[in-house]
């Protein structure tokens, strides 16, 4: 509970207690058997008026609580606007860090790099096939379950080969030449292709590494934005709670992961609505305090007047009591004429009537009237006991 709320609560409790003292005061006036109780009640009434005036002064003074709280609300509004502006900047920045892979798939693919690969083995290989005939090569074997380099397979089929083809020594040597040349060329071509493949695989590994680094950078940036947005919300909640303003909870927040354009737009719209609601609540509380300040200022003179009237009322009745006691002492050796006392009391009654008409506040007017009625009752009793000389 803030200091302002504490003082407002005290003001309310004292006002309530003062209203209860009105009845206690009337009862104490009618109870002639216990004069001390009346003095206690009168003192409590004086304390209540004094406390109400002091509290009111603390509320409305130039450096008082109400003006201080109003200043805090003005500063709060400024802080909320600054936080909101930063929040909007972060949400827009968050949108920039969202990568939409679907956009990349719809763009036209750039022309790729072309590689021209020359092979040097096919001519000799084709010459060999043409010389021996394709039906007399391993390509013609059906359901071959063996590797072409399997010695067992070659040996087991040697007789069949000899039966299918009869070649001259010259052609046989040509076959060997074609095969050796083609095999050497194929080996060289394979090395070239392997080098190209190794280069592509190296580039792929580089791309994967860079992709991980850039994704980590994006995640770090998103996390940083999300953390700052969370801090803004926490700061705003603390500021509002410190001012005694409680807003309805809203469920929207920025997560660390990927968000769609629509969700960012929703968050921005939600932030704007929350800002409007926050400013509205601050404005309502500020207007309420300004009205309280106005009311308390207008009531300040009344509180002072009530305190002064009650003090003057007490001064009058206590002065009357002293006069009556003095009159009784002066006439202790002779019979005291009630008319003399009545005249003294009537003067006090007239004074109290004047005080009663001065203030239209119910509480103090009622208690002054009760004091007056008690004196009137005393006069009536004295008149009944009065005897002619």
Automatic annotation (TrEMBL):
Gene name linked to the record: ATG23
Domain of life, per lineage: Eukaryota
Stated name of the protein: Autophagy protein
């Amino acid at each position: 509970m803030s200091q302002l709320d504490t003082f407002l609560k005290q003001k309310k409790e004292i006002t309530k207690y003062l209203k209860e003292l009105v009845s206690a005061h009337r009862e104490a006036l009618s109870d002639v058997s216990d004069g001390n109780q009346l003095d206690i009640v009168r003192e409590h009434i004086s304390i209540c008026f004094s406390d109400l005036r002091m509290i009111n002064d603390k509320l409305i003074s130039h450096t008082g609580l109400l003006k201080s709280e109003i200043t805090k609300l003005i500063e709060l509004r400024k802080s909320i606007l600054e936080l909101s502006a930063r929040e909007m900047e972060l949400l827009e920045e968050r949108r920039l860090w969202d990568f939409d892979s679907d956009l990349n798939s719809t763009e036209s693919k750039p022309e790729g790099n072309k590689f021209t690969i020359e092979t040097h083995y096919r001519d000799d290989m084709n010459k060999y096939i043409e010389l021996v005939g394709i039906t007399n090569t391993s390509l013609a074997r059906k359901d071959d379950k063996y590797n072409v380099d399997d010695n067992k397979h070659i040996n087991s089929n040697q007789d069949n080969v000899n039966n299918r083809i009869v070649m001259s020594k010259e052609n046989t040597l040509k076959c060997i030449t074609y095969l050796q040349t083609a095999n050497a060329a194929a080996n060289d071509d394979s090395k070239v292709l392997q080098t190209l493949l190794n280069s592509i695989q190296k580039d792929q590994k580089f791309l994967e590494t860079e992709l991980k680094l850039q994704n980590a950078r994006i995640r770090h940036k998103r996390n940083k934005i999300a953390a700052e947005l969370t801090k803004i919300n926490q700061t705003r909640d603390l500021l509002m709670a410190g001012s005694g303003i409680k807003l309805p909870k809203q469920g929207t927040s920025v997560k660390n992961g990927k968000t769609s354009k629509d969700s960012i737009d929703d968050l921005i719209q939600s932030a704007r609505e929350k800002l409007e609601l926050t400013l509205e609540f601050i404005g309502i509380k500020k207007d309420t305090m300004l009205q309280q300040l106005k009311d308390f200022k207008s009531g300040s003179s009344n509180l002072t007047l009530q305190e002064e009237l009650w003090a003057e009322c007490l001064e009058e009745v206590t002065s009357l009591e002293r006069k009556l006691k003095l009159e009784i002492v002066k006439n202790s050796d002779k019979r005291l004429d009630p008319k003399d006392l009545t005249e003294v009391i009537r003067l006090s009654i007239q004074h109290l009537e004047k005080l009663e008409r001065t203030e239209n506040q119910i509480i103090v007017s009622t208690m002054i009237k009760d004091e007056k009625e008690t004196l009137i009752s005393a006069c009536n009793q004295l008149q009944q006991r009065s005897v002619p000389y």
